[in-house]
Amino acid sequence: MELREFLRAASKRERADVAVVCNDSVSYLYQLAGKHRYASALMAARIEVMTREVASRSGGRLEAVLRESLVRYPEIYDREEPYLMVAEERP
Fold first, then answer.
1. CA–CA dist 59, 75 (Å, integer)
2. What does the pLDDT look like over 60-91, one tens digit per residue?
3. What is the DSSP string of 27-59?
């Protein structure tokens, strides 16, 4: 799911929950959704984790936003061994 679709379908509370990872800025999420800005690799990973968590609580209404859709160069995630992981993903 693209971030734009996620934000349209999400409630105000769900958008605020995702915004926690980017300093409580829903405006920043809208800038990312409109492709006016691109997230850093770390921020994209954090947004993916949080949207996955919010989507799991939505009862199937929402889906996670993949980090590849949030960065300028998505090929950074094409490596065999991921070199950038958020704490929740580490084994």
1. 31
2. 999 999 999 999 998 887 766 555 555 555 55
3. HHHHHHHTTSS---HHHHHHHHHHHHHHHHHTT
Those residues with Cβ within 8 angstroms of residue 32's Cβ, 6 or more apart along the chain or in another chain: 3, 38, 39, 47, 70
Neighbours of 9 (CB within 10 A): 14
**Of 63, 68, 54, which Cα lies nearest the Cα of 21?**
54
Using CA atoms, how far apart are residues 75 and 4, in angstroms rounded to an integer? Answer: 21
Give CA–CA dist 27/33, Å, rounded. Answer: 10
Overall pTM > 0.70: yes
List CB contacts of 45: < 8 A, sequence separation 6 or more.
67, 84, 85, 86, 89
- Does residue 39 contact residue 71 with C-beta atoms inside 8 Å? yes
